[in-house]
Every structure is written in structure tokens, then in C-alpha cells.
Design brief:
The structure holds 3 protein chains of 3 kinds. By secondary structure, chain A is α/β, with parallel strands linked by helices. Chain A is built from 8 helices and 18 strands. Chain A has a 7-stranded parallel beta sheet, with helices on both faces. In chain A, strands 15-14-16-17-18 form a 5-stranded parallel beta sheet. Chain A has a 3-stranded antiparallel beta sheet with strand order 8-9-10, with no helix packed on it. The longest helix of chain A has 16 residues. The model of chain A has no long low-confidence stretch (mean pLDDT 95). Chain B is of the alpha+beta class. A 4-stranded antiparallel beta sheet of chain B has the order 2-3-7-6, with no helix packed on it. A 3-stranded mixed beta sheet of chain B has the order 1-4-5. Chain B has a two-stranded antiparallel ribbon with strand order 8-9. The radius of gyration of chain B is 21 Å and the shape is globular. Chain C folds into 2 domains: 205 residues, Rossmann fold, CATH 3.40.50; 28 residues, no CATH class. In chain C, the strands form 2 sheets. In chain C, strands 9-8-7-10-6-1-4-5-11 form a 9-stranded mixed beta sheet, with helices on both faces. A two-stranded antiparallel sheet of chain C has the order 2-3. In chain C, a hairpin with a 2-residue loop joins strand 8 and strand 9. In chain C, helix 4 packs across helix 5. Chain C is globular and about 70 Å long. The chains are: A alpha/beta, B alpha+beta, C alpha/beta. Chains A and C meet through helix 4, strand 7, strand 9, strand 10 and strand 13 of A and helix 4, helix 5, strand 7, strand 8 and strand 9 of C. Strand 13 of chain A pairs antiparallel with strand 9 of chain C, so a sheet runs across the interface.
Chain lengths: 322, 380, 260
């Protein structure tokens, strides 16, 4: 079993859940599990990775890594990889992971396989299952180069506590600053505590049936009732109508998601939308049109006016949550 | 004979189809309910050259011919017939193209081809529709002007147009009934022009239809289409030979749209545990729709090709127009039947298609008139 | 301003995907092929920049079989000036992101450009890797998921806004650079009719991969393709009125699905 090196992503001072998911998966596959964490003041976070199976944790810590800059991060990680010589590299296919992973693979002169939802070993080779056409099809893909690089879609693997050796090593990297051409001037992150749609466990999504931007408050209320792992989403119709920012769009030309629970409110279920959320574990559809295609995919369907269903649903969820 | 479309024509279909799908779909239901003319969509389509695309490049159009115009019309009508009538923003100008002077062509054609104006063809009157020569609106010469009095009815674009090509009697004493009329361009803001929008149409409610009255309306002599009086009836016939083919293209589009929507629906809708698409009676209906649509499309293509080649065949045009109206009504009817109860409510497009289709058997020559034309030729 | 736009022809988003009998790819028969929607934002941005600077050339570069010319013509009809069509069906069939980027890099390296636009991903394989590899091969900085672009008057640098998780980042980048277009960057125009009529006369340089001197083997290999497991319609929650149904739904999510 080749050694696995994980890129542990830090956002808002915390390691992403997706990074723990890939650490757990690596542990399950066996072999030596290493992780590399990059940032400014991130050393204290390193032990958490040990909980999920990291035997070795490399820490690249410095003020120059305060803001994510792909070139600097790629250089740092590549130097760690050079040292570790892993057979396999895992990243989580978060928003940042999708930017970082292809750049890293290109630097290592190998191909990477992005957004994998499953993975198994065949000898020394990992074979990944990944969606194509926004989830309308799946492909089993194998990487030829060494190392084999995979980004893994959040929520694809469970997080399992299974401690690794957890040795921490600080690494000093030499940055070739002439290659760092871009300068991040500012980063504006909304104050909201909501997770990204691709990582959320519960998504309450609204479509054309929402009738206007003001009504999405109702969906936010329901999402908040579920807790911090829930967020809201929108169909393309709602985004194109200008009711919701594109960042909320679920489906082909938006985000492909696979939460534990997807609640579609006033969404008819165009093929592009169904492809983008079809791997959700449980789908609920609330729509007054019983012929809406969304009902053919829904585990639970409510045929009624969403404006009359969502508020009492929020109340009921509150009651159950106590 | 080559049945292949050119690359340009294929792209034309794609652009027109994408435009209609993106721009018409979100507003079609509301415009139908509110009887509202889609002025913004007209403007946008004009900027893309989709309005007046038949007008040759030398007069500011895209120069795709009437065949190209039929392709655009089909794509538009596939999504919504009412909104598709923005393509009739050049209505009446066909007569200027066929019979106008060079100055008139240079003045009016670029205007309508580039979003500068909407025109209307004011032919029909309260007592004279299909009987074109029976119009009574009178234009009397007075010095360098014509003074016009009379009423027009069911005028497409009446309430939104900038000018109308108006069929008037100028030579009532002429012994030949067909030589008494002339076409005169009347700007809609002329004093004495009263326009009343007609409400309560069964279908194509996003299109504009009005009643117009002329009371001592004065227009300069140079507004006469062509150089001599008495040509109006022939110019009007030539106009209808053109627009009849465009109406037939509307029929192909509407029928295709009805079929497409039906296909989507029958695959989703289940009855007795299976999609209704698996039932032979459903399949029979779909196939019958497809057969008629393909036949009609071929008629439209042939008529439009002939028109662009200057070979006008009024009998072929009558056959085309007649059959397109029949096909549209037939397919819209089947589409409603396949949708069952949902087809009867206006949240489903086929309900609107059903109401819209009927006009295709009425305007631009009723189906009865087409039958008469065809039969008369058969028996002579 | 001179720009290059990398464009891929892909199945329309409405396409129902079917897998071929060998299980190695999709059934292409009956598929409606279109310009990649994200690439379309790239073409539009290139045109807008050209219009802003009132000078320059927009070149479309596309790797694809014969049919790709249709999407190229669409780009030319929108207003692009010229195109390079790397028409090599055999190479295209096997090409992974690395091979694709290698071919594109070879075609682009002799062109003049201030910015190279790519879509943030092609919506067929959804890999989103070609721009990064292209950047590596051409030695250019890459900024992904761009939703706003301001190019300095002297074209020496640009300020771009990119989508990041939960918000956006504003980044300065020297030009030339590779920018990947995300939805929200602009509203792509339709090809106008005069544009369509002109497109046929615009030059398209057709090349094979051998012409470009590229010989790379793919680094990732698709072994097998399949369709997602079909989802069955579940149960419809019944109730006297909406409130009753809401209550029953909450109960089902709690007791049956154990999600609350």
C-alpha cells in the first residue's frame, strides 16, 4: 500500500470537515497516512488530524501563507511532497480544493482526478469513481503518473475517529517569490456561518415557485432550524431571475451537491437540477404541481403550496429538536 | 433539389431558437394573461437582426430571404405564438419591398429592420376581410395631399406601430373593381388617426390588435406606395402571398412546440403504473402529430424557396397556409388531450397553444378562402 | 487588447446522457452540441474587453473533432475574429486534461494575447483542470472562477474578482494571465444575424496535433462508464391540510429517515 499525503485545508481558523473525511478514508485504505497543513498560525490545529488517522503531520506555518495564494501553496505542498514521496495525494474538492488540486498536479507533472465520490485500491493503483455531466454519468478512472492525485467530493466518506501516530513536523519551505505573480488584495467573506453548498449536510433549496427574492427568508429560517450544517440553495430559474446569487445555484452550471437531506421547495426538477442533486441521500420535494418531475426522484413528496407548508415545517422541526 | 440547410441557416435556427427559449419562456404566461405587447423583446430581437431578417442587406436587413424568415418564425412560434408576432414588426413593409419606389424602400425598410420603427398593414375593415376589394376607406387627393376617411379592423400592431401601410379606395370610378385601390403609408401620429386596442382575444394575446379610424387624415402624396394609383389590390395580394407563408411557418412552429411538450409530458406522467408514453393510443397521437408537422414543414420550405426565387404560386401558398392551420389546430388539440386535466389549465403551455392555434385558420385568409382558391384552380 | 479563448464543444445541458454499449463513453447520436456555457462567458468577456479597448483580436482555440467547427462558428458569429481548430478525432477521443492542455498550449504559444480565457470547467467531464495545466505549460498565472475583470489601461495588469467559498477575493495579476470564467462574469450575447452571415468568411486555422508537434500520452484513463443508480419515487405525504402535511413530513424525517 503506497503512502498517502493529505492536503488539510484551513478556513476561518478551522480544518475543513472534508479534510477529515479524506484522512479517515486514507486510514481505512491502510498504509502510512501523512497530512500537510499550510497557513499562518495553524500549528495548533495539527493534532486534530491525528484523531482521524494521520501518522505524520507536516506544518508549513508563516505569515506569507495567511491568505490562500495558489502559487505559494502549491510550491509549499510540492516541497513537502518531494520530501514525503507519497504514492497518493488526497485533497477535499472544496471551492479551494478545486483551485489548488489541478495546479498542484500540474506542478508535479501528473494528472489529477477531480471530485471523486468513491475510491478503491487495485494493487498499488487507486481507482476512483467520479461523476461526469454533473452527475448524469459516472466514470471509473485510473491515474497513470506517480503520485496519483485525487480531489474528493465533500460528504463522500464518513469521518471516523481512528487515531494515527500523529507526529508533528514543522517544515520550512523555500518560496520562489518570482513565480508568485498574483497579489490577493482583499477577501470578503459573508458573515454567515452557513457551510458551502458542496459541503452542507442539509440544503433547503428554492426555485421558481418561490415567486420572489423576499421569500427566501422562509427557507433560511428552516435551514437555521436544522443547525450549523444546513444551508440554502436555489435552482437556476431562481438565480437567473435575479432572486439569489449564483453562489447558491445547485445543478449543472451551478454546484453539484450530495447532502444527507435536500429539501426542494417550488422546484419543478429540470434535468440539469436533478443531475446536480441526484446523489443526495434523502430528497424531499414540496411543490403544488403533482406532475413536477422532482417528485419522481423524491423520497418524500408534499403536494401543496410551499408557502403553507414551509412555516409549519420549521415549527415542527423546532419542536423535535427541542 | 437539395434538402440540406446551409450552415448559416442552421445557425439562424439555433440563434432564433435560443432567443425564443430564453426570452419568451419566462414571460409568455404573464403576457398572455395581461394582453401585453412584448416591446422589450421586440427591441432586443431587432438589435440581433431577427426582425425584418428577410429584408436585403442593401436595405438594412440581414438578407436571409423569406426562407430564412420562415425559419426564424418557426423557432419563435414553437415557444409562444403571441410573442412570436414581434416578427411581424415589419408588417405591411412587404408591400413597400414588392411595390414601393426606391426612395420608399430606402426610407422605410432600414427603419423596421433595425428597431427604429414598427409597421402595420391596415387592410381589413369591419365589413371587408377576405374580400379585399370590398374595402371602403377612401383617400381623396387634395393638392399635394391625400385626405383619408374610413375604418380598419383587427389590425396587427395597430396600437404599437409607427406607421401603417393602408389599403384605400382612390379610384372608385374605375370600371375594374380591382383597380380602384391604392396603398398609402399613414404615420400613426397623424392628426385624425384614432387607435383602439382590441381586448378579449381568445389567443395570441401578447400580440397587438387594434381598430383604427381615420377622420380627415392628411398625408403627403409621396406616401402612395409606388408611383401610380390603382395598384393597391395587386400589391395587397402580393403582400398576402408573402405573409401567408409566414403564417404557415407559425403553424409549423406551434405544432412542433405542442408535440415537444407532449413528448416530455407523456414520458413523465404515469397511469396504471407506467408512463403514458408506453400506451399505444399515446404513441398513435404523437406519430400523427409528427406526420402532419413534417408534411407541413416541407410545404412551408417549398413555398418560401419559391418566393425567394420570385416564383409565386398562389395555389401552393393556399395549400400551405390551409394545411398549416389544420396541423396547428390538430396538434394543439392532441397536446391538450395528452395532458389530460392539466392541459386544460393555463399553467400548462399547451392550454395557451390550443387557444392560439385557432387564429391560424382565420387570419391571412380564412381556411374557407384558401379552399375556394384551391378548388377554383382545380376546376378551371 | 488581444485575447485567446479556449473553447470546448459539449453536449447541451438538457441532454439525457446514455452510455455506449462498450461502457467506455456516452452515446453521441442525437446529442445537441453547443459551446461550453462557461466558455461562452469567456468569449463574451473577450469581446467586451476588445470593445472597451476599441482594438485587438479575439482568437478562439478549440480541440475537437469535425463537429467542433459548429461551436467555433458560433463564437465567430458572436464576434470573435479568428480561430484555431485542432481537429484531431483520434487524439481527442483519448485526451485527458493534461493532453488537452498540451495541445492547446502548443496552438496558443505563437499567438498574441494579453489574456487567455477558459471556462471554469467543461460541462462534459467536469474536470476543471485544463486551465491550471495550461498555466503550468505556458508559465502564466492562473486565476479561477473569475466574476469580474478590470484591465489596466496599459494592459500591464488586471484586477480580478474571483468567487471563493462564502464570498469573493479581489486579486491583482500581471498580464498576460489565464482567467477562468464563472457564471456571473457577464451575460453572453446571442450571435446576431449579421454576425452569422459574416462568420463564414472569418479565417479558421485547422491543425492536427502532429502539426503542432505534440505527442503526449494521457495521464488519466477512463476505465468504465455507468449511469447513476435510478432513484425511485418515494412516498407522498398525505394530510388534511398543509399544516398536517408539514407535521407528517417532520415526523417522517425524524422517525423514518432519522435526519432530525
Amino acid at each position: 500500500m503506497p503512502g498517502i499525503l493529505i492536503y488539510a485545508e484551513v478556513q476561518k481558523g478551522e480544518i475543513k470537515k472534508g479534510s477529515f473525511e479524506v484522512t479517515s478514508k486514507a486510514k481505512e485504505l491502510g498504509g502510512e497516512v501523512s497530512a500537510c497543513i499550510i497557513g499562518s498560525g495553524v500549528e495548533a490545529l495539527a493534532p486534530e488530524l491525528a484523531k482521524y488517522g494521520a501518522d505524520k503531520i507536516y506544518v508549513v506555518d508563516g505569515p506569507e501563507f495567511e491568505k490562500y495564494e495558489p502559487e505559494a501553496y502549491v510550491q509549499a505542498f510540492a516541497q513537502v511532497a518531494e520530501k514525503v514521496k507519497p504514492g497518493i495525494i488526497f485533497t477535499s474538492a472544496t471551492a479551494q480544493g478545486k483551485d489548488f488540486t489541478p495546479a498542484l498536479a500540474a506542478r508535479l507533472k501528473v494528472g489529477s482526478i477531480s471530485d471523486c465520490v468513491d475510491l478503491s485500491m487495485s494493487g498499488d493503483k487507486a481507482v476512483a469513481k467520479r461523476p461526469m455531466y454533473a452527475g448524469k454519468a459516472y466514470a471509473m478512472v485510473e491515474a497513470v503518473g506517480n503520485p496519483q492525485v485525487f480531489s474528493i467530493r465533500p460528504n463522500s466518506f464518513p469521518v471516523n475517529e481512528s487515531a494515527g501516530a500523529g507526529a508533528i513536523e514543522k517544515v520550512t519551505v523555500n518560496l520562489d517569490s518570482s513565480k508568485i505573480k498574483t497579489m490577493v488584495k482583499s477577501v470578503e467573506i459573508a458573515a454567515s456561518e452557513e457551510p458551502d453548498q458542496t459541503e452542507a449536510e442539509i440544503i433547503v433549496s428554492g426555485g421558481r415557485g418561490m415567486k420572489g427574492p423576499e421569500n427566501f427568508k422562509m427557507l433560511e429560517d428552516l435551514a437555521h432550524t436544522f443547525g450549523p450544517t444546513a444551508t440554502t440553495g436555489a435552482s437556476r430559474a431562481a438565480v437567473d431571475a435575479g432572486w439569489r446569487d449564483h453562489a447558491y445555484q445547485v445543478g449543472q452550471t451551478g454546484k453539484t451537491v450530495s447532502p444527507n437531506l435536500y429539501i426542494a421547495c417550488g422546484i419543478s426538477g429540470a434535468i440539469q437540477h436533478l443531475a446536480g442533486m441526484g446523489t443526495s441521500k434523502v430528497i424531499v420535494a414540496i411543490n403544488k404541481d403533482p406532475e413536477a418531475p422532482i417528485f419522481t426522484k423524491a423520497d418524500f413528496g408534499v403536494v401543496d403550496d410551499l408557502f403553507k407548508v414551509v412555516p409549519p415545517l420549521t415549527e415542527e422541526v423546532k419542536k423535535i429538536k427541542g | 433539389m437539395d434538402f440540406e440547410l446551409t450552415d448559416e441557416q442552421k445557425m439562424l435556427i439555433e440563434t432564433a431558437g435560443d432567443f425564443a427559449k430564453n426570452e419568451f419562456t419566462p414571460v409568455a404566461q404573464d403576457l398572455d394573461r395581461e394582453e401585453k405587447y412584448p416591446m422589450e423583446i421586440w427591441k432586443k430581437a431587432s438589435e440581433l437582426g431577427l426582425i425584418g431578417a428577410w429584408i436585403p442587406e442593401e436595405y438594412g436587413g440581414a438578407g436571409v430571404g423569406f426562407f430564412g424568415n420562415a425559419l426564424i418564425t418557426e423557432q419563435f412560434s414553437k415557444v409562444d405564438l403571441g410573442i412570436s408576432l414581434i416578427i411581424a414588426g415589419t408588417f405591411g413593409c412587404e408591400s413597400i419591398y414588392w411595390g414601393g419606389t426606391e426612395e420608399q424602400k430606402k426610407k422605410y425598410l432600414p427603419l423596421v429592420a433595425q428597431g427604429g420603427a414598427i409597421s402595420a398593414g391596415a387592410f381589413t375593415e369591419p365589413d371587408a376581410g377576405t374580400d379585399v376589394a370590398g374595402v371602403r376607406t377612401r383617400a381623396v387627393k387634395d393638392g399635394d395631399d391625400y385626405v383619408i376617411n374610413g375604418n380598419k379592423m383587427f389590425i396587427t400592431n395597430g396600437d404599437v406601430c409607427d406607421f401603417m401601410v393602408t389599403l384605400c379606395v382612390t379610384n372608385p370610378e374605375n370600371e375594374k373593381r380591382y383597380k380602384r385601390q391604392s396603398l398609402i403609408i399613414v404615420e400613426s401620429d397623424r392628426k385624425g388617426v384614432t387607435i383602439t386596442k382590441i381586448h378579449g382575444k381568445m389567443g395570441i394575446r401578447a400580440s397587438d390588435t387594434a381598430e383604427i379610424s381615420f377622420e380627415d387624415v392628411r398625408v403627403p402624396r409621396e406616401n402612395l406606395v409606388g408611383t401610380s394609383e390603382g395598384q393597391g389590390f395587386y400589391q395587397a395580394m402580393q403582400f398576402f402571398d408573402t405573409t401567408r407563408i409566414m403564417v404557415a411557418a407559425q403553424g409549423v412552429g406551434l405544432a412542433q412546440g405542442a408535440l415537444d411538450k407532449s413528448i416530455d409530458y407523456v414520458k413523465e406522467r404515469k397511469a396504471f403504473g407506467a408512463p403514458i408514453a408506453t400506451f399505444q393510443i399515446t404513441q398513435q397521437k404523437l406519430a400523427e402529430m409528427a406526420i402532419r408537422i413534417e408534411a407541413t414543414r416541407n410545404l412551408v420550405y417549398k413555398s418560401a424557396c419559391y418566393l425567394d426565387q420570385g416564383k409565386v404560386d398562389p395555389i401552393l401558398n393556399a395549400i400551405t397556409k390551409y394545411y398549416a392551420g389544420e396541423t396547428a389546430v390538430f396538434c394543439a388539440n392532441y397536446a391538450v388531450e395528452l395532458h389530460g386535466g392539466y392541459g386544460y389549465i393555463d399553467e400548462y403551455d399547451v392550454q395557451r397553444f390550443y387557444r392560439d392555434a385557432k387564429i391560424l385558420q382565420i387570419y391571412e385568409g380564412t381556411k374557407e378562402a384558401e379552399v375556394l382558391t384551391i378548388a377554383r384552380r382545380l376546376l378551371t | 487588447m488581444n485575447t485567446v479563448v479556449c473553447m470546448k464543444q459539449v453536449p447541451d445541458t438538457e441532454t439525457l446522457i446514455k452510455i455506449n454499449a462498450e461502457g467506455t463513453g456516452i452515446v453521441t447520436e442525437g446529442v445537441k452540441w453547443v459551446m461550453g456555457p462557461y466558455d461562452e462567458y469567456g468569449v463574451e468577456e473577450a469581446l467586451q474587453q476588445k470593445e472597451k479597448f476599441k482594438a485587438g483580436k479575439v482568437t478562439i482555440v478549440s480541440l475537437g473533432p469535425d463537429r467542433a467547427i459548429e461551436a467555433i462558428r458560433t463564437g465567430l458569429a458572436m464576434g470573435a475574429d479568428t480561430a484555431v481548430h485542432i481537429n484531431d478525432a483520434a487524439f481527442y477521443e483519448k485526451a485527458d486534461p493534461y493532453a488537452t492542455a498540451s495541445a492547446l498550449a502548443a496552438a496558443i504559444k505563437d499567438l498574441e494575447y494579453d489574456v487567455i480565457f477558459c471556462g471554469k470547467q467543461a460541462i462534459d467531464d467536469d474536470s476543471g483542470q485544463v486551465p491550471a495545466i495550461l498555466g503550468e505549460l505556458l508559465g502564466l498565472p492562473v486565476i479561477t472562477q473569475v466574476i469580474k475583470l478590470e484591465v489596466a489601461d496599459d494592459k500591464s495588469k488586471a484586477t480580478v474578482t474571483r468567487e471563493v467559498e462564502g464570498g469573493h477575493a479581489i486579486i491583482d495579476v500581471p498580464l498576460p494571465a489565464i482567467l477562468t470564467a464563472q457564471k456571473g462574469l457577464n451575460e453572453p450575447r446571442y450571435a446576431s444575424l449579421p454576425g452569422i452571415m459574416k462568420a463564414k468568411k472569418k479565417p479558421v486555422d485547422v491543425k492536427t496535433v502532429a502539426d503542432l508537434g505534440v505527442s503526449v500520452e494521457p495521464m488519466t484513463v477512463i476505465k468504465e462508464m455507468s449511469l447513476p443508480p435510478a432513484r425511485q419515487a418515494g412516498k407522498i405525504i398525505e394530510g388534511e391540510d398543509a399544516a398536517e402535511k408539514a407535521k407528517a413530513l417532520a415526523k417522517a424525517l425524524h422517525e423514518e429517515a432519522k435526519l432530525i
